[in-house]
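WARN retry 2 of 3 for item q-0093 after timeout on previous attempt; input resubmitted unchanged.
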Amino acid sequence: MKLAVFDFDSTLMDGETIEFLAYEAGVEEEVRNITTRAMNGELDFFESLTKRVSLLKGIREDRVNEICSNLPLMAGAVETVKKLREKGYKVICFSGGFRNATVPMAEKLGLDGEFSNILHVKDGILTGFAGGEMMFNNSKGIMLSKLQRILGVTPENTIAAGDGANDLSMFKYAQTRVAFCAKPILEKEASVIIKEKNLTKLLEYI
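OK item q-0093 returned
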């Protein structure tokens, strides 16, 4: 058994889900600034996430789903997932973002699973709160170690790929540690650094 775990925003998807939603709410610049600082490791991820989600309060859930169903795939995402699965990998998405985006994208890409957060909704409107599996700096590492135990996968047979500080906790559990168009904090701990926005470049190292 082999396992490949990808971050979602700016890795499998070309952009940040929360920034697409922030544009709808008219708070894009504020959210982008917080996102950048969080991905550079300058802010605690939980605090940054809760602050950004609070700014989305008032958006209609149906509009959120519409936006999230039309997010742009990263170049090479389809081909890379297909090739990894052909090589015997279970391919999983971990996202500090939201299921509104990861569920439809998992279907498009043919992923084996996705783990992300849930935007709280009341009467069809975002309340500004969220909860879920990927809320903290170390959430991805914890989930990866659990999956390895369940599936019987070793770090030697694990790929972890991401771009920001909240992906760092995965690297402890993966021999192939991929920094994809990543922040310096992640590149420092990576075994593979990809500078081009094309996921098929990863296949050169598999």
